């Protein structure tokens, strides 16, 4: 990246016109749009399937924490396995620098099996993903072709419909899923977990994941960037595109490191700065257990979401990011639908957006800050600041909160006033009313201080009705 680069003409003249063919899956060329186009001036040809040692590991409720290695080349391994044509099938595909034999891919399969009786197939192409990033970019065409060949084998043996298949891919794995979908029409769903940006941003649809690759394509962007430091793709690439926390950097991590920018490697691993990129599959994992905590709001930009122009909306108007995105009634109304949300910094990352109105009572004016503490049924608490500085009696203070406690599990909300050191000892401040509107349904709850007495600092507590 930092060294002198050849000219466009030199790149095109030195790389185009080559082709390689592999038995079963066909031929691959480096003609445009695979090379020699803006964003992909220099790529190359993919390695052979044998060189990459591609494997498919089946997880079902019968296999437990173990798996069965199955092969489309030796189809009897599928017939003798616990694969069932009466169940839906999910393929999990890792990205650059990762593996499908352990880690998040296996954990995802095991969690999916807890909530759904499916066939879950972990796709491993670690030997094709651990070279240079450019070689891995080339190799996903073969991986996608192998996934498509596997699906064709299921069609042949079991008359298995692509409509029963869900492909879930992270980074380069997302574009791998797109390549498989390009080759097999009628796949029910593809989920792209922060599809890789370098060598894919701005390229033609056949090169990258796009809405035509499946009946429904949903995408989570967790590390896009307009400049080189982002690992994920910036533009929309699905029917529903979710941008949690704006889709650039995620809370709980520092910004992208210069080392990662120089190496330019969108890795699955949470090393050399790839943690924001990896957060997309962590979000998906947690969304399986906390679906309502990932509600996406329709906005044109994250700035407009932050300025609260998109609040509230019902689940008929707002989809849930992650595993249950396909339950959104309007998911296929059009492509490139943008949705925004904020998440917490720590697992399970889920938040519930709420609009809070607090009307004060007490002395006319004083300095300090007012906060609300949310208590859940398990004894956990989360505190959020509503306002600080000069506080005025009878004024209504408004704040949008992304609360980490599910409203359905909220036991009580506590009003806290912290006065400054210079506030008169006799000064008192209370909350006359606390009104809360929930973002998922627009439903409002009002908490009232019925006696309207002046309240001591940090003492006002009312149970939610």
Automatic annotation (TrEMBL):
Domain Lipase per the UniProt entry, residue ranges: 18-349
Catalytic residues, chain numbering: 171 (nucleophile), 194 (charge relay system), 277 (charge relay system)
GO biological process, one term: lipid catabolic process
Protein name: Triacylglycerol lipase
Signal peptide: none
GO annotations of cellular component type: extracellular region
Amino-acid positions noted as binding Ca(2+) in the UniProt annotation, renumbered to this chain: 208, 210, 213
Family as reported in the entry's similarity comment: Belongs to the AB hydrolase superfamily. Lipase family.
GO terms, molecular function: lipoprotein lipase activity; metal ion binding
Keywords for the protein's UniProt record, in alphabetical order: Calcium, Disulfide bond, Lipid degradation, Lipid metabolism, Metal-binding, Secreted
SUPFAM superfamilies: alpha/beta-Hydrolases (SSF53474), Lipase/lipooxygenase domain (PLAT/LH2 domain) (SSF49723)
Compartment(s) where it occurs, according to its Swiss-Prot or TrEMBL record: Secreted
Enzymatic reactions: a triacylglycerol + H2O = a diacylglycerol + a fatty acid + H(+)
E.C. number: 3.1.1.3
């Amino acid at each position: 990246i930092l060294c002198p680069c050849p000219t466009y003409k030199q790149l095109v003249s030195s790389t185009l016109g080559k082709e390689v063919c592999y038995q079963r899956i066909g031929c691959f060329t480096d003609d445009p749009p695979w090379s020699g186009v803006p964003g992909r001036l220099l790529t190359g040809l993919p390695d052979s399937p044998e060189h990459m040692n591609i494997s498919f590991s089946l997880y079902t409720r019968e296999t437990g924490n173990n798996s069965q290695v199955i092969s489309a080349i030796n189809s009897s391994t599928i017939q003798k396995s616990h694969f069932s044509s009466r169940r839906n099938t999910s393929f999990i595909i890792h990205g650059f620098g990762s593996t499908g034999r352990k880690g998040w891919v296996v954990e995802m399969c095991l969690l999916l099996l807890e909530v759904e009786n499916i066939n879950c197939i972990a796709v491993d192409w670690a030997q094709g993903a651990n070279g240079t990033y450019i070689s891995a970019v080339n190799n996903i065409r073969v991986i996608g072709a192998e996934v498509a060949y596997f699906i064709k084998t299921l069609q042949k043996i079991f008359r298995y419909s692509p409509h029963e298949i869900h492909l879930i891919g992270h980074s380069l794995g997302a574009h791998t899923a797109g390549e498989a979908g390009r080759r097999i029409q009628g796949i029910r769903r593809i989920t792209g977990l922060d599809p890789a940006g370098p060598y894919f941003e701005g390229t033609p649809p056949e090169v990258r994941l796009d809405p035509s690759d499946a009946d429904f394509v949903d995408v989570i962007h967790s590390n896009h960037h307009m400049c080189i430091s982002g690992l994920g793709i910036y533009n929309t690439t699905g029917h529903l595109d979710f941008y949690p926390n704006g889709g650039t950097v995620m809370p709980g991590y520092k910004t992208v490191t210069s080392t990662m920018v120089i190496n330019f490697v969108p890795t699955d691993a949470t090393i050399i700065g790839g943690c924001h990129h990896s957060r997309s599959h962590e979000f998906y994992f947690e969304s399986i257990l906390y679906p309502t905590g990932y509600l996406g709001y329709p906005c044109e930009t994250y700035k407009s979401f932050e300025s609260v122009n998109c609040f509230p909306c019902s689940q008929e108007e707002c989809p849930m990011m992650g595993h249950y995105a396909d339950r959104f009634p309007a998911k296929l109304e059009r492509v490139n639908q943008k949705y925004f949300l904020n998440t917490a910094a720590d697992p399970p990352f889920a938040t519930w957006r709420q609009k809070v109105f607090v009307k004060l009572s007490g002395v006319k004016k004083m300095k300090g800050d007012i906060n609300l503490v949310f208590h859940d049924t398990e004894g956990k608490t989360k505190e959020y600041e509503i306002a600080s500085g000069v506080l005025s009696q009878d004024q209504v203070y408004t704040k949008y909160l992304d609360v980490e406690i599910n409203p359905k599990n909220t036991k009580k909300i506590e009003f806290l006033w912290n006065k400054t050191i210079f506030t008169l000892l006799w000064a008192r401040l209370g909350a006359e009313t606390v009104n809360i509107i929930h973002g998922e349904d627009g439903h409002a709850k009002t908490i009232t201080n019925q006696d309207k007495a002046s309240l001591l600092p940090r003492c006002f507590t009312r149970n939610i009705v």
